[in-house]
Amino acid sequence: MACGIIRSWKRLVKKGRADPDKPPTFKASAMRLQKELMRFRGDKIAVTTKPYSWIEVPLVISSYQRQFVEGWREGKLKVGEITLLNNRAIVTFRKEVEEKKPCGYASVDVNLMSLDILEAKDGLGYRKIDLKKLYSVRVHYFEKRRKIQALSKFKPKTSKMLMEKYSKREKRRVNDILHEITTSIVREFVKNGVTPILEKLKGLSYNATRNKYAKRRNRKVSFLPYRKIQDFIEYKMAWHGYKTHYVSAKNTSKTCPRCGRLSKTNGQVFKCEGCGFMADRHFVACINILRMWGIGFSPKALDELIEREGLSRNESNNSLYIPT
Ligand SMILES: [Zn+2]
Q1: Based on C-alpha coordinates, what's the Rg of the chain?
Q2: Which residues, in sequence order, are bridge partners of residue 78?
Q3: What pLDDT sits at residue 200?
Q4: Ligand 1 centroid distance, CA of 270 (Å)
Q5: What helix, strand, coil percent values describe the chain, rounded to 5?
Q6: How confident is residue 226, by pLDDT bands cut at 50, 70 and 90?
Q7: pLDDT of residue 323
Q8: What is the C-alpha separation between 231 and 242, in angstroms, rounded?
Q9: What is the pLDDT of residue 223?
């Protein structure tokens, strides 16, 4: 089991999606055996203890989980790894899908307050999904954690218990929001037959480098789960047969989409020091992500989209940044 964890971590490091200086630690008491020794039987798991004898672990199955069990019974899904924990079992299901050929691409740029999508199919389509709800949940629980921390001196046990309780609650709430957002994005992509292009995130510096102005405040709130959003999108797209692609995140929000020159960003607005091009910086990042995947646009198409969506910026509305 430890080997498996190390192996998958090494794989992620190779892909640049895990921190090479932080090897995984595993603290939960859990059991995972090789496939032949642990069998999924729909309503129970049979664990072989010695030749020809086994113990059965009965499962409580909710309505959400039932669809997977039924898919398995019908032969549409295969059971992957099974892990037994103290109070629950984790059963992974696999589905084999034929890879679909996309009829377009969509870049997804994940930021602190918004998720920006630029879809290139027949024409260009841009939309912004508000992530403020997610951010405020993080802020809320950050404050809670800080109060509990203050308690730890006098009542360490209570503090630890509360911390666990609220951490779990926060994780649940964040995951709910993430599933809600990513499911609706993926539904739209699948409907349009487009496949997502995401930024390769490296290490932990992402938040700090991408949002200098919110850095101080947001360090406290810790990171927004950028990677999780990407992972959810990737696996939900894969479920429908679409492959997600990644491009390098370098300079995506600093490169002028019109003349290619690098400029410093200032707040929410990108302004090119060469040609004077101005637009919402997340929109600029979306364009550059698509560009890096090899999708070009005519300057005219770009201008039309900017005009249509009201994305042009000038000095006077430079203060678009949302204070928190
Ligand atoms: Zn320019």
Answers
A1: 23
A2: 94
A3: 87
A4: 10
A5: 40, 25, 35
A6: confident
A7: 34
A8: 13
A9: 61
Question: In angstroms, what is the span from residue 39 Cα to ligand 1's centroid?
Answer: 60
DSSP, res 37: G
pTM for the full predicted model = 0.77
Structural tokens at position 23:
């090897």
CA 263 to ligand 1 centroid distance, Å: 8
The rounded Å distance from CA 316 to ligand 1 centre is 20
Q: From the CA of 226, how far away is ligand 1's center (Å)?
A: 28
Rounded Cα–Cα distance for residues 196 and 230 (Å): 10
**Percentage of the chain with pLDDT > 90?**
42
CA of 235 to the centre of ligand 1 (A): 36
The confidence score (pLDDT) of residue 204 equals 41
Q: Cα separation of 311 and 65, whole Å?
A: 43
Distance 271 CA to ligand 1 centre (A): 8
For residue 291, the CA-to-ligand 1 centroid distance in Å is 15
Backbone angles phi, psi at 315, to 5 degrees: -50, -40
How remote is the CA of residue 251 from the centroid of ligand 1, in Å?
Answer: 14
pLDDT in tens, 142-198: 889 888 988 888 888 999 899 999 989 999 999 999 999 999 999 999 999 999 999
Mean predicted lDDT score pLDDT of the chain: 85
Residue 115 CA, ligand 1 centroid: distance in Å = 24
Domain boundaries, the chain: 2-94, 104-317
